[in-house]
């Protein structure tokens, strides 16, 4: 599209801490993901998701979490896991994709930058 950005996806490390203070290593959060409104429905978001999961596999990530619509993200292998929680978020909309072993148990925390307000 003549050098115009039409879509975007981001991955960032997350912290998952269980009730004993143990932290799961190698987990990432996916988001935000976006596609220009006039380009939605053309498979761009699906290609961005496929590339993001491929990058996670190449990095040998343990897994990935995201907050979103299950009707969309389940097709990429993401599912709600009762063992993972993001405080204040309905559990049906907080999903994970385990890439190495099972999903851990615990509370997920994104980088403080996601909570910043100015």
UniProtKB/TrEMBL annotation:
Q: Tell me which domain of life the UniProt entry assigns to the organism this sequence originates from.
A: Bacteria
Q: Keywords of this protein's UniProt record, alphabetized?
A: Transferase
InterPro entries reported for this sequence: Acyl_CoA_acyltransferase, GNAT_dom
Cleavable signal peptide: none
Q: Name one GO molecular function term.
A: acyltransferase activity, transferring groups other than amino-acyl groups
Q: Which PROSITE patterns match?
A: GNAT
Q: Which residues form the N-acetyltransferase domain?
A: 1-100
Query: In its keyword annotation, does this UniProt entry include Transferase?
Result: yes
The protein's name is: N-acetyltransferase
> What organism is the protein native to?
Cupriavidus pauculus
């Amino acid at each position: 599209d003549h050098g115009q950005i039409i879509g975007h996806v981001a991955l960032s490390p997350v912290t998952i801490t269980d009730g004993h203070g143990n932290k799961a290593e190698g987990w990432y959060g996916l988001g935000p993901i976006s596609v220009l409104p006039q380009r939605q429905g053309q498979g761009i978001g699906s290609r961005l998701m496929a590339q993001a999961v491929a990058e996670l596999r190449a990095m040998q990530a343990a897994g990935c979490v995201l907050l979103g619509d299950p009707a969309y993200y389940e097709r990429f292998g993401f599912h709600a896991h009762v063992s993972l929680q993001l405080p204040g978020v309905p559990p049906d909309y907080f999903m994970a994709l385990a890439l190495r072993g099972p999903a851990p148990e615990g509370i997920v925390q994104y980088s403080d930058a996601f909570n910043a307000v100015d």
